[in-house]
Amino acid sequence: MNNLVRVCAPRPLRNWLRSPSRSIQYIRHRLVYGIGIVSTLELLPGWSVKCHPASRSHFQSFEDDPAQRDELQAFFSHSSTGMKLLDIGAHHGLFTLAALHCGGSPARVIAVEPSTRAAEILKINLRLNNRADRVCVENIALGPTDGELKMLTTGPAGADYLVVPASTRPDTTFVPQRSLPSLLRETQFQPTHIKMDVESCEYEILESSIEVLASLKPTLFLELHGNMLRARGKDPARVPEMLRAAGYRQFLELGRAIDSCELASRKATARLVCLQ
Asked: At 99, which helix (H) or strand (E)?
């Protein structure tokens, strides 16, 4: 029955009907921006950003939610002047903007975002903060190989995120995909820092990138989604093994070192700083 509904009712329509209140808010945000109203937030002392109204609640969560606030503070703590960030899963660009703030005028970013609609908001946020000239936005997904990736749109209810389904679905959309080694080779970009928040696709990206990570030795900000990995048939215990094979020896969460066994058994999301 679920598959029948998925075939007969287009996913974009179901996305809009899933949460009427969020769909109305989605339209309102775009109307408000259309008449020139934007939001300004001070997320950390001394750092304010301008953003599209559609980004406000997402950006605000990094001030209001303790786990996300700690994640952002850890990013600041391990950033550096002139940093070159590869922002994998950039969404509306909060960490891209953070890197440009922390890294100063020499900092550069490649922001990878598979959702076309999220990428549009990201580009607006860059323009609002006069940072567009230092960022290359890649509207693609990263994965183990070059080609295409089947993903699900989330629409207004999911802030336009794209996610990889845990099983075969008839309502997926095809997104251009590059491997991390291919993207770096094509762009000639050598990141000093990588942020990866890809809702369980971290497994495939890391698995195909061990050699390039070992060579470049970037600081890695990683969201490890234990339960989501298991739902897709992936073993979270392999992730710390792959990181160690790439040369990473220290894993920090909230400034505390955690070992491979703890990472492998984690069910909830782990927000890590991985150091070589």
From this structure: helix 94-103
For tokens 């509904």, name the residue.
5
19-46 residue pLDDT tens: 889 999 999 999 999 999 999 999 999 9
Quick count: other Cβ atoms within 10 Å of Cβ 37?
11
* Count of residues in the chain: 276
Q: Answer yes or no: are the C-beta atoms of 187 and 166 closer than 8 Å.
A: no
Q: How far apart are CA 232 and CA 236, in angstroms?
A: 11
Provide the residue type at 47 as one letter.
Answer: W
Q: How far is CA 60 from CA 42, 116, 156, in A?
A: 9, 22, 18
Distance between CA atoms of residues 158 and 170, nearest Å: 19
For residue range 112-141, what is the model confidence (pLDDT) as tens digits? 999 999 999 999 999 999 999 999 999 999
Cβ 128 vs Cβ 134: under 8 Å: no
Q: Which CATH superfamily is domain 65-275 in?
A: Vaccinia Virus protein VP39 (3.40.50.150)
The residues spanned by each domain of the chain are: 65-275
